[in-house]
Amino acid sequence: MTLTRYNATAATLTKNRTGGDWTPISGMCVTCVDGCIGMCEIGKSAYRGHEVIYPQPFGITTMASQKDYPIDLSHFNIMGTAVGAVGIEEDSDKAIFPNVNLEARLGHDKGIKLRVPIIIGGLGSTNVAAINWEGLAIGSALAGTILTIGENVCGMDVKSTIKNGRVVSSPELERRVKLYKDWQRDSYGAIVLQANVEDTRLRAQEYAVEELGVEIVELKWGQGAKDIGGEVKIRDLEKAQILKKRGYVVLPDPLDPVRIDEFRNGVFTEFERHSRVGMVAEESFVARVEELRRTGAKYVTLKTGAYRPVDLARAVKFSSIAKIDYLTVDGAGGGTGMSPWRMMNEWGVPTVELWSLLRQYCDRLAQKGEYVPDIALAGGFTMEDQMFKGLALCAPHCKAIVMARAPLAAAMVGKTIGKAIESENLPIFLERFGHNRESIFVTAEELKRDYGSDYGKIPTAAIGLYTYYERLAQGLRQLMCGSRKFALEHISRNDIAALTPEASRVSGIPLVSDIDAEEVDRILG
User: Fold this and answer.
1) What string of DSSP letters covers 438-453?
2) Could you tell me which residue ranges the Glutamate synthase domain spans (predicted)?
3) Which of 236, 281, 363, 461 could form a cystine bridge with 415, CB 3.0-4.6 A?
């Protein structure tokens, strides 16, 4: 099923007049009637134009592709076994799921420590990231996982001080870094700052390393949701003008007197701020990595999106040459705070296909004895079974799973529950668990014991994220125990089987009916 069949979706707040009766090729209503007010995407585009390109409403939602791709992780099953134990003694009293070790180590020196192999991908200058940052930062720090500050934070901060084209102060970036570092425990987890073209020009990463103590920086080629630069909507004229003067692409032009009058008269209500696309070249990429290391960055990473296979090959090879600490590869359909809706659905290499190519490219370098960076996979992960399959699909190179929408959803739910508790207006769905934090959040008592007097400072948004991660961790331990793998490094491609010939062909994972064939022959004779 392709998205081009749809001419209406909740993402753009549109619908067909004829409901489920629509033409498969175009997505239009079977009967398009003269006199319709224009509720579908075509109709809404007739009066709101380019505004309908983007999912709505901006600032309080996240979005991801609605397209049903030919292959996804559900086309694989996890293989369990009744024999042995890897990574622990073969003893039924010791080989129990609570003893599965989920700690991960990333980087050239394996110095980045994670309690659970989860990274939150770049959450940057969109409103939904900014207003939920407290829960994301504190929750990630408590869990001992990585949190990535996305692009354009310094440039979008109207309180930033920029001298000679370089940022020297950004209260918003300082807030984001400090919230994480204040709650970080025992050196587990890390705060990472991502940079695009505008961030690099502002020297935002140098500022973060030199002034804020950030140790990990991430170069960004792109993401799975789009193949252009990041964008946000601006409803404040003065802010739009500041961003225009800082060099951003702002549409319509907020310095044009005609456009200013139109905005003030309500002809349009928001500006769009766009980022530039980068121009990747091996020499400049390696030079930038070396420059960041000289600045003091302890680890340098790269995130790339769902570009064509040759660009993935460039990402792998250039990362090898520059000895990048970990490479994040984000498949098509990924989540976003704002991306063109049709682009999110109709461009790029889907996740399973992209990750399968990635594994092949990493294997080729490894076979030649070349450096292969640690790999992190991104592209719609939400639950522990998907995490297991991702780790197995790209084993032995994949060391962590990258998420964004799911952790943000957990933090937002936690925040909403906290507000309901404070207002003493809990819905029945929650009242059955109790009326306070300790009775509703299953990890709250644990956090209360661990943090004592500081427990009251932990927002419910952070407790929500921490509790979600606790579920993922226990679920992943159970799956790994069933496969008799008691540490992450032991997960292999042999731990999953393909359910369809197409999934097997693309991934190189044997069909479930073919797996173990040689061993079966050995046993049966």
Assistant:
1) HHHSTTHHHHHHHHGG
2) 281-397
3) 461
Inform me whether the pLDDT recorded for 489 exceeds 60: yes
Q: Rg for the chain (alpha carbons), in Å?
A: 24
The DSSP output letter for 277 is P
Q: pLDDT per residue over 269-321, tens digit each?
A: 999 999 899 899 999 999 999 999 999 999 999 999 999 999 999 999 999 99
| Residue that has been written with the tokens 């520059």 in this structure | 322
The residue whose two tokens read 């292959």 is: 71
Distances (CA, A) of 222 to 58, 410, 500: 21, 25, 31
Beta carbons within 10 angstroms of residue 284's beta carbon? 11
Residues 6+ apart with CB under 8 A from 21: 29, 30
* pLDDT computed for residue 124 by the predictor: 84
Q: Which two tokens stand for residue 53?
A: 């390109």
CATH number of the 73-229+281-410 domain: 3.20.20.70
Predicted TM-score of the model (pTM): 0.93
Whose CA is closest to 441, among 462, 457, 422, 424? 462
**Domain chopping of the chain, boundaries:** 3-53, 73-229+281-410, 231-274, 417-471
Contacts for 485 with CB less than 8 Å, ≥ 6 apart: 86, 87, 100, 491, 492, 495
Separation between Cα atoms, residue 219 and residue 242, nearest integer Å:
25
Residues above pLDDT 70, as percent of the chain: 99
> How many CB atoms neighbour CB 258 within 10 A?
9
Q: Are 79 and 336 in contact (CB under 8 A)?
A: no
Range of weakest confidence among 125-129, 356-360, 468-472: 125-129
Instruction: Please name the residues in contact with 106: beta carbons below 8 A apart, sequence gap of 6 or more.
Output: 112, 114, 299, 325, 326, 374, 376, 399, 400
Query: What span, in angstroms and rounded, lies between the C-alpha atoms of 401 and 355?
Result: 12
Q: Residue 23 and residue 30: Cα distance in Å, rounded?
A: 5
Burial of 329 by CB count in 10 Å (0-12 exposed, 13-18 middle, 19+ buried)? buried
CA distance 168 to 256: 29
The predicted structure's pLDDT at residue 510: 97
Q: If we measure between CA atoms, which residue out of 395, 375, 383 comes closest to residue 473?
A: 383
Residues 401, 403, 406: CA angle, nearest 5 degrees: 135
Question: In what helix (H) or strand (E) does residue 406 lie, and over which residues does it extend?
Answer: helix 405-422
Angle between helix 460-482 and helix 405-422 axes, rounded to 10 deg: 130
Distance of alpha carbon 334 from alpha carbon 413, whole angstroms: 21
- Separation between Cα atoms, residue 492 and residue 141, nearest integer Å: 29
Which tens digit of pLDDT belongs to each residue from 375-419?
999 999 999 999 999 999 999 999 999 999 999 999 999 999 999
CA 420 to chain centroid, in Å, comes to: 28
Question: Is pLDDT of 59 > 80?
Answer: no
